[in-house]
């Protein structure tokens, strides 16, 4: 059912620009107004979500330690896995954000006759995730050439590396291929692994379908239908400079592409895609394991009822006296 | 009791299937099968603690006698906690259901029940969160993964959140550090708002609140236990040893989990502490008021954890000690390391801990002012302050089980290993995926170690037991050491079931065995096993049966 509804949603999203641009000719709406609105929603949504998270206090320092604590000087502290201070906490978070450190640990448990539990490699998930995210980043950077004037050195270098193998014409960007493979893998595992299928919701399929359609429409334009780059750049620079113009020779495929991208960025702040922001605020990863060295303050530390020693002694004075235990008050 | 109904180990393992059913998981209906859940709280404990909605009920009954507005109470509690705990809010929002955690949970690995996959355990709460607290959920309902909070959903929460031992193994593997322990803690707080708690947690709580320890041992009983242990030590070593209780002005207040002085095999470790402190001439005291290191409050609510934990600092202040030393215990150390200072600090009336024997400053504990016994003892050994004869443990072939909380909530991994390597000659590690930060829970933590829950415990403990079996088969390991009172209480039953022939012991039991004491006369370990001496003194056949 989740798969069906996600596919349905994607179909509708593709049909909208087909009808809107192809049928009704609302090119300005789809080329300017919707992208602006989506971008606005994206920025405001992200800020809103982050503020919503940030305003919730962190009452306890609940670091998950994945290595040796810093204790005695002659015991080697695993600084990255049980960070002793804020610097190493930052390093730990960088390793999560840049290299998906925790996902890298992934293993796969299998129950063999015996019974014998064995733990094999689960590295594919990490590989799929890293390939997708880095391809996405490179593609995003490459796209900046549509929005800024003379292309920057940085984008040139990134694009140059990305087309390192110089295959095909137009030259193949490696990331275009990698992102399609990675997305297909991430989607297939949700279809094929019974466990994954069981836990997957529409909210898991939908973004994958959406990203896949964005990548497919983009690569189609680059490699097959040959989009007019000059026209795209004209639109992009117009949008970026707030002097939007709609060039004539933009294909329907381009409008589908840009509408799906608009959908993605508008959907982004209100979905699980916000995991990107969440990781920076995750209390098990963004705090040092220096609990006993530096006191953490809970801003709402509640007053609770306790059983005081005086009450305790009052109740047990007689037996304590008989047992010869020292007392605060004799009577 | 459920014990007689449990299948043989091979049959039980044969029945484990990791492939979930075809149908989706949204139907909350659970069947309360005997052996897989814990009995409900009896009213007396809840009443004593002033906790809400005490009543007589049991989970397998149709009518849970919920208060009329239970749904409102739970949703209000949900909302409050979303505003008070960033962890909770974030963990509700950012899961991408990548499935990395799915096969990391010992309860899933031992039961195959898909709702024991950490991601789904969290989804049980998340579905209600989406339904009631997110825009998508309010509009799209089930399509957005939302579920209404019904009685059946509540029962499902009870079943599965008392089938999580808060061991945090999944949080090691989660790319966002989502910690199911945190989610379970919130769910249990919500359940406790309407009195849906389990007796094995709330009765010890009431005992601990009143008498200072979970077992309800009164001050004179505590003194008797200590004296009993001292008599035993006299019989074993010929030494007259003292152990001060409620002594004002002692340098150190020593707090252990109550099982240490009352249960086997904890007790042998307790003898180890007493022998060690005597040998080094430590100026310390026990307390009857703070005679419990463990804190079942953590398994109930943050408030309850605070109410019990308050006794440690209060007693340290009353007795005017300089700092605190804590025994071998798992969740006690989660509380001491990650909560105590925040909840009941600052401990500005204490001094920064310095070992009176070695002069070592425990810099890592300078604010909380409480030191773990393994930190203390490994420091003694490193500085050659005690004489050890590891040959005295030659009848043991030892492995070490990292207890969840010291491993993943503290990072105490090397200290116990350093001690073990110094006090015994035959130490073997279990496979890499099952130790240190990846250690598997005993399956009985977080208040689930009851007899009525035995089948679930044996299932949850299966991955741990299976790793022990590996070293038992390969290296003839016959002793599983650990530093957690719940481990020591529940691993023996787990070993008997899955790996017969492996006993369970404390690190400080082996320390006590190996400790060469001035003036001692002894030829047995604390269990009465004869020391077999160095390898050359052993019979050629080798394998000693203990």
How would you characterize this protein structure?
The complex is a heterodimer of chains A (331) and B (546). Chain A has helices spanning 2-23, 27-54, 86-99, 101-104, 123-143, 153-162, 174-192, 194-199, 202-224, 229-240, 252-267, 275-281, 309-322; strands spanning 107-112, 116-121. Chain A is mostly helical and 331 residues long. Chain A has a two-stranded antiparallel ribbon with strand order 1-2. In chain A, a hairpin with a 3-residue loop joins strand 1 and strand 2. Chain A is elongated. Chain B has 546 residues and is mainly alpha-helical. Chain B has helices at residues 9-14, 43-49, 70-84, 86-93, 106-111, 118-133, 135-140, 151-161, 169-173, 180-193, 199-211, 219-237, 266-280, 302-318, 331-344, 373-382, 404-408, 414-423, 454-460, 462-475, 485-498, 507-514, and strands at residues 252-255, 284-285, 323-326, 370-372, 398-401, 479-482, 503-506. The model of chain B is unreliable at 542-546 (pLDDT under 50). At the A-B interface, helix 2, strand 1, strand 2, helix 8 and helix 9 of A face helix 1, helix 3, helix 4, helix 6 and helix 9 of B.
Fourth-level CATH superfamily of the largest domain in chain A: Transmembrane di-heme cytochromes, Chain C
Q: What general form of chain A does the structure show?
A: elongated
Strand order of the largest sheet of chain B: 2-1-3-4
CATH arch. level architecture of the largest domain in chain A: Up-down Bundle
Low-confidence stretches of chain A: none
* Structural class category of chain B: mainly alpha
Q: In the CATH scheme, what's the topology name of the largest domain in chain A?
A: Fumarate Reductase Cytochrome B subunit
How many distinct helices of chain A?
A: 13
Task: List how many beta strands of chain B DSSP finds.
Answer: 7
Rounded radius of gyration of chain A (Å): 28 Å
What are the SSEs and their pairings?
The complex is a heterodimer of chains A (331) and B (546).
Chain A (H helix, E strand, L loop, with lengths): L1 H22 L3 H28 L31 H14 L1 H4 L2 E6 L3 E6 L1 H21 L9 H10 L11 H19 L1 H6 L2 H23 L4 H12 L11 H16 L7 H7 L27 H14 L9
Helix pairs in contact in A: 1-9, 1-11, 2-11, 5-7, 7-9, 9-11
Chain B lengths: L8 H6 L28 H7 L20 H15 L1 H8 L12 H6 L6 H16 L1 H6 L10 H11 L7 H5 L6 H14 L5 H13 L7 H19 L14 E4 L10 H15 L3 E2 L16 H17 L4 E4 L4 H14 L25 E3 H10 L15 E4 L2 H5 L5 H10 L30 H7 L1 H14 L3 E4 L2 H14 L4 E4 H8 L32
Parallel strand pairs in B: 1-2, 1-3, 3-4, 5-6, 6-7
Helix pairs in contact in B: 2-11, 3-10, 6-10, 8-10, 12-13, 13-22, 14-15, 16-18, 18-22
